[in-house]
Amino acid sequence: MLNELLAAWISRQRWFGGKGRPIDELSIDADVVLAPGLRHLIVAVWQDGSRDRYQLLLGERDDLPDRLAHALIGTIDGVCLYDAAHDPERTSWLLDGMARDEGRSGLRMRHVEGAEIDTSPRSMVLGAEQSNTSLVYGDAYICKIFRRLIPGVNPELEIVTALAARKAPHIARPYGWIEADLDGTGTTLAFMQEFLSNANDGWDLALTSVRDLYASAPEITAAEAGGDFAGEARRLGVATARVHEELAAAFPTAVIETHEIKRMAESFRRRLGRAVAEVPELRPHVSALEDAYHEVELLTDAVPVQRVHGDYHLGQVMRTPLDWVVLDFEGEPGQPLAERRALSSPLRDVAGMLRSFDYAARHLLAGRAEAADLEERAQAWADRNRAAFLEGYAEGGGVIGRADAALLRAFELSKAVYEVGYEARNRPTWLPIPLAAFRPR
Ligand SMILES: Nc1ncnc2c1ncn2[C@@H]1O[C@H](COP(=O)(O)OP(=O)(O)O)[C@@H](O)[C@H]1O
Ligand SMILES: O=P(O)(O)O[C@H]1O[C@H](CO)[C@@H](O[C@H]2O[C@H](CO)[C@@H](O)[C@H](O)[C@H]2O)[C@H](O)[C@H]1O
Question: In the chain, what are the domains?
């Protein structure tokens, strides 16, 4: 009975990865009582012969107050079952558990060495619930509950705790995490960090600048328009280089030679193959993309590799009154953990952010009558901020040599190919944004 209720409910959740496909079976793999009226469940969802596992906090109440009505999953024997992530009276147990390093039937709640956790703030679910659910406790902490579970330590926990131990700048302080064994492997279920209460998302800041530019008279250049972002783009470049330096110091590094460079080009091609099969609009660009990837195969110099962010864009950075802070070191969602933890060229992150300036510049263009004129201004905005970011990156000690141009270009194009797939699946009206990256310039 509970299984059926959960199957119907889970398929409607924003974070459920198998939307649009029928659920063949849902089973409960683990069910731990965390506190009175609060259970922690790991469920396995079977679709088309494949299995994904998700976690949920199951609340139980005899009467569900109105403020929790939206979280109702169903009623069994007169007991209301609901998503307790939305119930601050229940989620306070997670904070208490981490503060006291508690364990419950295989579920381990931990705090970072030396971190003092104030257990008084109550939580709210962060509005933009996407692939995960984030709980914000007062203005002190943000605890990300990873919904779809992949066995292993989450790269975000791994990286942020390693950088914090080095007292690295540009990261949000880690406080605690929750873990359990999945298939015999210690697996991160949740990760809690400092909440940057007085900070703005990089994407929102960039868009404010772009809007100003669109609203301004045509003769006004990107540099003259109000809300110029280039100073911030430069600072972000500096911060990015510093984070790369810290990652290289905290984790192993290597250099890859000719045959591994060829393998990298092959992986760009594989991604392209998959994306073309999914999105036919990519077809006219295949030959130009192949040429760009071939340039990589011709490289003769060794390429330095290290741990990187992996899914770097303006939505992953926040501007505090002091400086930029980098968030979400999880890598590209949906990729296998081994791939997300693999060493890579830091140019991959540089390329990700360059793409993001293009995104910010272009995303308001779609469907606007005056688009041709705006297109020019959008391009000017993107060019200016991309250049400023690269200047900052060099200023911060990041190295982009002349021989790196082919690799940087290939990373950028490959990111755009990934974005084409991402937009086709999630936001089809945004598809023209990454497609514009393939136009000859
Ligand atoms: N430490 C933090 N302080 C303040 N806001 C944060 C923090 N971490 C994340 N956020 C907010 O949550 C949003 C989503 O966070 P993110 O880690 O990118 O989650 P997801 O993996 O679901 O994309 C960010 O764009 C930001 O607005
Ligand atoms: O933030 P996530 O880890 O969930 O990353 C995924 O979603 C992103 C969108 O939210 C997506 O980023 C793309 O859109 C951004 C604007 O919304 C833009 O700044 C990025 O440059 C662009 O790639 C990201 O690719 C995806 O992995």
Answer: 2-194 (no CATH), 200-438 (3.90.1200.10)
